[in-house]
Design brief:
This protein has 97 residues and is mostly beta strands. The chain has one domain. The protein is built from no helices and eight strands. The strands form four sheets. Strands 1-2 form a two-stranded antiparallel ribbon. The chain has a two-stranded antiparallel sheet with strand order 3-4. Strands 5-6 form a two-stranded antiparallel sheet. β5 and β6 form a beta hairpin. The protein is extended. The two termini are 27 Å apart. The relative contact order is 0.14.
Length: 97
């Protein structure tokens, strides 16, 4: 998340939402869709939290930022007629090399 001074137009801070270490604390996931099976393993990988929704609210004079990290890869866009469409741009790990 980047902090922007609206008056000067300059960014003054950047904060990460953090990451999850899947191999730690016995967290498991099925890292392949090639074997048509469920194979939950504690893979030693990290994934970044990328919130699907971010909102700001104020309570008793204090401003809070809240996020929802659902973990899905679905993205929503409108077509030319303004109709909402689902799409996803998932890639396999081997595509990152």
């Amino acid at each position: 998340m980047a902090y922007l001074n609206i008056t000067t137009g300059e960014f003054y801070d950047i904060k990460s939402f953090g990451y999850k270490e899947w191999g730690a604390a016995n967290l498991t996931l099925d890292a392949s869709d090639d074997d048509d099976a469920i194979n939950m393993q504690p893979w030693m990988i990290r994934s970044l939290y990328t919130p699907d929704v971010i909102d700001v609210f104020e309570h008793e004079g204090v401003e809070y930022i809240i996020t929802a990290n659902e973990g899905n890869s679905k993205e929503i866009e409108e077509d030319e007629a303004g109709v909402l469409q689902d799409f996803s741009e998932e890639i396999d790990g081997e595509d990152l090399a």
